[in-house]
Amino acid sequence: MNHPGEENSMKLLLLTAAFVGGLLAATPAMAQNARLGYVPTEDHPVGQASRYFAKLVDEKTGGRIKIDTFGNGVLGSEPEMQASVQAGFIDIMVGPTPNLVGVVPQFMIFDLPFFYKDFAAVDAVMDGAVGEQLFSQLKKKTGIVGLAWWDNGFRHMTNKIRPINTVEDMAGINIRVIPNPLFIATWKALGTNPTPLPWPELYSALENGAVDAQETPYALIYTARFYEVQKYLAKTGHVYTPFVLLASQKWFGSLSDEDKAIVMDAAKESAAFQRKVSRKSAEDLEQELVAKGFKITQPTPEALAAMRERVAPVVKEYSEKIGADVVEQARAAMAAVAGQ
Fold first, then answer.
1. Half-sphere exposure at residue 251, Cβ-oriented, CA atoms within 13 angstroms
2. Contact (Cβ atoms closer than 8 angstroms) between residue 98 and residue 241
3. CA-closest candidate to residue 274, choices 37, 51, 122, 39
């Protein structure tokens, strides 16, 4: 038998629960804050921009919509968060585009080697018809809402054997690549021996000599401390990878039209902020990597053209898988800003 005090406490709890439940039903804005997850550290440009986006949404909605940000992968790995966003368990996430290729093959447009000359070319594709089309396909196939395109940077090659100035210098080097058919085909065409390895195994593989080389953007080269196990960095800029800010249909769909427009507007502002921070950070990191002992080489335009020629058959093969129309749209968008 319950103690009388317990009974009273139980009644009070039930009344409180009923009261709070009633309040929540009457004012959806008082529901749990939206949660935004990402894998990089909090001081990484992705962390900075996630907080900036949350602040903008809070300000623009007069505090009606609050977003809590969670870095360092505490809400899961990128593929896990993607599944959670699709199911509506997590509201918003940031992740790189290669994880989306499985559901929308057109996202491979950002895995094509030596396709993007510079940031102007990249931005023209992300912010134009191609970017819109990719987000539209993603929503159609998964329900996930694309909010904005963020920067992850150009990928460069590092190794511990020799400086890389030409495609001939790459011959026979064992390089770790993302376990992805397009990356494997690219590095075979360049004359290296590509070894697909998951990211967590890479540092020890470089340390014990299982592989000699790897390719990632500056921020990852630095935060993963590859300067401890690599000596040479070639500014190949062979692939550009974006980050994307994504929302669950469950959360985004629950917003009023006015709030949807505000969130989209904040996402657009966050993209301008994040790209600026990310690209400035990459510039600064180059000096840091030199200070840490990297010998950095810049292949000449002629040498890069020779690399582009080697991978041309790979670009052709995968362009068919992406869709010739999408690739042509991307080329047209880049041509429109070339030389500006």
1. 27
2. yes
3. 51
Contact of 236 with 165, CB cutoff 8 Å: no
Q: What is the pLDDT of residues 125-156, one digit of tens each?
A: 999 999 999 999 999 999 999 999 999 999 99
How far apart CA 205 and CA 267 sit, in angstroms, is 38
Torsion angles phi and psi, residue 31, rounded to 5: -65, 175
Q: What is the pLDDT of residue 220?
A: 85
* H-only helix segments in 150-223: 181-189, 202-207, 218-223
Q: What is the pLDDT of residues 248-261, one digit of tens each?
A: 999 999 999 999 99
**Sign of CA pseudo-dihedral 285, 242, 167, 338:** negative
Residues 115 and 70: their CA atoms lie apart, in Å, by: 33
Of the candidates 48, 88, 64, 93, the one whose C-alpha atom is nearest the C-alpha of residue 262 is 64
Burial of 67 (0-12, 13-18, 19+ CB in 10 A): buried
Q: Could you tell me whether strands 34-37 and 67-70 are parallel, antiparallel, or unpaired per DSSP bridges?
A: parallel
CB 287 within 8 A of CB 170: no
Residue type, 162: R
Among 59, 87, 65, 63, which residue's Cα sits nearest to residue 75? 87
Element (H, E) at 120: helix 119-126
What three-state secondary structure class fits 161? coil
Give me the half-sphere count of Cα atoms (radius 13 Å) on the Cβ side of residue 134.
31
Query: Which pTM was predicted?
Result: 0.85
d(Cα 274, Cα 77) in Å, to the nearest integer? 21
* Helix (H) / strand (E) containing 301: helix 301-322
The H or E element spanning position 195 is: strand 193-196
Output the CA angle 206-219-319, nearest 5 degrees.
85
Neighbour tally for 268: CB within 10 Å: 15
Structure-token pair, residue 142:
């998964």
| pLDDT value, residue 340 | 63
